[in-house]
Amino acid sequence: MIPNPNSDELNRRQFLNRFAKAGISISAACAAGFWFYDAKGPAASINKRSEIVQFDFSIEGLGQKMSIVQGEDRAATLRMALKLLGGIETFIKKGDRVLLKVNAAFATPAMLSATTHPEIITEMARLCLKAGAASVVVTDNPINDPASCFTLTGIAEAARKAGAKVILPRDDLFVTMTAKDAKLIQNWPVLYKPFADINKVIGMAPLKDHHRSGASMTMKNWYGLLGGRRNIFHQDIHGIIMELAKMVKPTFVVLDATTTMMTNGPTGGSLSDLKNTHTMIVSTDQVAADAFGASLLGRSLDQLPFIGKAEAAGLGTADYQKLNPVTGSTSTKSSSEQP
Amino acid sequence: MIHKSKNISRLQTVLSMVILSVLMIIGAGIWIAQSQFNTAVLQKGAFLPKPTQKKTSSQLSSNPYFLPLPEGIQPLTKAEIFDAGNLSDKINGKAELYLSAGFTRLVSQRFKDDGTADLWMEAFVYDMGNSQNAFSVFSTQRREGSESLDLAENAYRTSNAVFLTHGRYYVEIIASKVSEEERQPGKLMAVTFIRNTPSEKAALNESALFPEKAMVKNSIALIASNAFGFDGLDKIYTAEYEFDDHSLMAYLSRRGSPAEATKMASAYGKFLLAFGGKQIETQLPIKGARLIEVLDTYEIVFSHGSYLAGVRDAVNADQAKNLAIRLYDQLKE
User: Fold this and answer.
1) Overall domain count for chain A
2) Where does the pLDDT of residue B47 fall: very low under 50, low under 70, confident under 90, or very high at 90 and above?
3) Chain B contact for A338, CB < 8 A?
């Protein structure tokens, strides 16, 4: 059959021609789609070579030490707690550059005990400088606006009064990092740069109830080193606390239980949420410090799984009695020395 | 040779151009979306919360809830507004309590008292969606030993703060100091809030059905979800009772239908048995009631009509039965 060039109908040749072109177009589109397809999805960070981080500021050979002092005056109990462990000079040497990691999470007044109390910040900074520290810096990445938090809690003024410097978190102080052997802290922004020139780190936390984790103590305090949308870690709060404790080995920690937030934590809000427990704990073992804190809160270790997880990870001992804690009291001026 | 001009109509050409244009727009959209990938995943530029995450009003005095302010009280900061996506930026771990109870919005603002040195207050207005949700967060945080206030159906104050519900709102006014001076402005601000804020009348709920005898004052609470560690139990009203120096709890929850209430009672009973509970055979004048001993305490769970009900934490079976029967009698009425 001879095709009629003036006809609008397709002839066989035209049909095959168009069929082939359409087939090639469809194949090309599929090939392009396959080329762009990424079965793995995007990486969790723009920084593909995330640094493996381990903050180790512990003092080699010092071992696990713990002191527990009763008393109302925070500065006095802190001084005695350190004295019972050999004095601040056991930990801080001349020329040390010290970082105090405080809990400045909320822009609330110090009396609500939702944040580290200014009195122990002043006293700790003063003691470090007296021991010969070259510098003392105070930092945290709060939940609320940092400037408001450091101001309204009295922490900024407390640091300034003792000659310490406050470092407020800024974008450029965070580095995307992966904690060693971590499942959660991978390619995550960490408040790293304030630690860059530091050789001693002291964690200073208040003892609080916490709606999500059951308690907020010295290990939970490291949560303030995380940046980004860190609240997603609340889905595995006990896992993230354990990983943070693994990521940071401090020189020692201070757990301030002078006034404990027993209910409605971590924010509290009313003085009736608080109880005077008049205790200051200093320890090189943050697991032991938290285990003791749990007893003051009236919580069993089963209710605070992060303690068991941290112990299982080899970060310390939940049986704080094994450390033979040295105890004392500022009100009676008596103390029982470690055997 | 093919004469294309004759085979392709103008309509086909126009349609082709339209289709190609649509494809180009879709392609451009995908390109833009990819370039702005979710920062929660990539963490690109998300090291600190961005100012846009926390909305602030433009003027210091723009929070209308508390206007006019008491004499001497001035705004200290702008009002901040938080939604379900960023509530944890304000209250961290406590956000779960509000989110599970139906939270929709928080407006917070700080105020200072010109007449009292170092006194400032922060007011939190939580919009919980309805009065039941507001009561839930109010009741589960109620402070022991607080002083009831008559300015709202649910209101109390402590030495530094005022707490209340008003319609769908839960309000906290927290002061930085303890003094008589700060009590009055906080209470006055609460009164102003109630006057300025229309609210629907609270619906009748299960709290009116608890037996009154031996009930601990102000002990009624509403657990929004995951009550008693059991995922299925939500919207559970509880009340504390004191018998012979022992405390125990009664609970109630109106379900969608009698069948649902029966099913829930059965599921909770199985949950207790699965976690070490032991069913005790006993005679109770409540159809389908189960007495279960668990962790050295006694529980009774039953349903009546659309109500799931029960007793917990009793130190002996007689106490549990006594309260359960009284609760059942109330429901029958």
Assistant:
1) 1
2) very low
3) no
